[in-house]
Amino acid sequence: MKRPKVKNILIISVLTISFLLSGFNATGPKAPEFKLKRIVIDAGHGGKDPGTVGSMSKEKDIALKVALQVGQYIKENLPEVEVIYTRKTDTFIELKERSNIANRNKADLFISIHCNAAPSRAAYGTETFVMGTKNFEANFDIVKRENSVILLEENFEEQYEGFDPSSPESYMMFNLMQKAFLSNSLSLASKVEEDFSTRVNRYSRGVKQAPLYVLWTTSMPSVLIELGFLSNANEEKYLNTKDGQTYLSSAIYRSVKAYKEEIEEL
Ligand SMILES: [Zn+2]
């Protein structure tokens, strides 16, 4: 008689404890917490890899200045968010290591910052990429350029298991693990392009999908921002001004803030 009673009390206690631990409170069940706690900011290229080169400047230098400024705004205005840079100086970082840094640190967001170039000097404007293979052939020049950095790395054949950045066939083998993060990545990417266009008065070429290495190997929402074309004289000039860099950095910061509010509201 007594034994089952003790057992019942034990079961009830266990149930109560699990109930309390499950996060129930007076207002009902609590949604799982999703917070933007850690951001990796990746300044493209660096060191022996200048990225695209304009008539007066190099992509690696502009990308670094803007990356540091975005990080600074986040630190000042969103002190609860930890900022991690893939590089803070003019150093060469392998592509693989950039996504490793984000994955190792369990970042909630990855933002890669770059400048564009095109054979036509008339091309200008901003564009933001998320991982995807939809219509990527249209952006294959950018895909090739941004991914071909691995050719500068030692043992790249071994490191990247036969992946050839200049062969479209190589891109068919992707494991699209970024698919899970597509809607979040798209949400941030649209905010960035919208802010560039409406508040910084840049010409936005829109949000695009492409299999860019740093995007498909990061296991969190991620975007790659092309700030403008160094092959366009006016845009190169703008990208080299302190004001231009400040406006673009503020736009990226505001988009991160809006994205944070959006995902934490859910
Ligand atoms: Zn680049």
Describe the structure.
- By secondary structure, the protein is of the alpha/beta class.
- The chain has two domains: 1-29; 31-265, Aminopeptidase (3-Layer(aba) Sandwich), CATH 3.40.630.40.
- Helix content is 42%, strand content 14%.
- The protein contains nine helices and six strands; from the N terminus they run αβαβαββαααβαβαα.
- Strands 2-1-3-6-4-5 form a six-stranded mixed β-sheet, with helices on both faces.
- Helix 2 (59-77) crosses helix 9 (242-265) and helix 6 (182-198) packs across helix 9 (242-265).
- Zinc ion binds next to loops.
The CA-CA distance between the termini, in Å, is 50 Å
Query: Level of helix content?
Result: 40-55%
What string gives the helices and strands in order?
HEHEHEEHHHEHEHH
Could you tell me the strand content as a percent range? 5-15%
The second-level CATH architecture of the largest domain is: 3-Layer(aba) Sandwich
The dominant shape is globular
| CA-based gyration radius | 22 Å
Identify the bound ligands. zinc ion
Provide a concise account of the structure shown.
Helix content is 42%, strand content 14%. With 266 residues, the protein is an alpha/beta fold.
What are the SSEs and their pairings?
Elements: H1 2-21, E1 38-43, H2 59-77, E2 82-85, H3 95-104, E3 109-116, E4 126-130, H4 140-147, H5 156-159, H6 182-198, E5 204-209, H7 213-216, E6 222-229, H8 233-239, H9 242-265
The site of zinc ion has 6 residues, from loops.
Give a quick set of tags describing it.
alpha/beta, 2 domains, 42% helix, single chain, 266 residues, binds zinc ion, 6-stranded mixed sheet
